[in-house]
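Action item from last week, closing it out:
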Amino acid sequence: SKAAITVRVGTQTRIGHLRYFEGKPEFEKIFDYVIRRDLGLPLDKPVTPDLVEAYMQKLAENLANQAASYTDLNFLHGSLTAGNQTTKGIPIDFGTFSVFDALHGNHNYLYEQLYLGNQAKNISDYLIKVLRYLKKSNYPADISEQETTKKFNAIYRKKLNSLRLNRLGLSEEEIKKLPQELKQAFFSSTQ
């Protein structure tokens, strides 16, 4: 008889790896490694609460920027699973990507479980998953889900607004000079 094995090789860790090890004794050691590696720190550096916070901030930034880019360009990652997102907040497995001519918020995907109009929220849910894995594993971190979501949303809105204003011809420097009220009004008008 014949058999085959498919092996994915790479240097990334996926949020799915954290899910697999949540609640297990190895979790803390693995998460400490993820923090050190993803922040570019020496692998023997002790992980402190400040580093955990810095890691979660960087993850929120990367995910929010990703979500803003998807929204701006009408991209759809058709398989938003913990196995298709690295612990750096970088998507992988692009075979399920689609590009639309416009926003089709009611378009459902992933076996009709998710909607394109909620993709940014679905991406932000990776942050909540990581925080819940930490909690279930009794990892020594005290990071608020609500505050983390607020940070994600603020970064997402700012990045999406910047991408759209840039497409209209404004430079980053010009965008920075715009009054905040005007940027807010523009964002609201494009939703």
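Closing note: The two ends are 57 Å apart (CA to CA).
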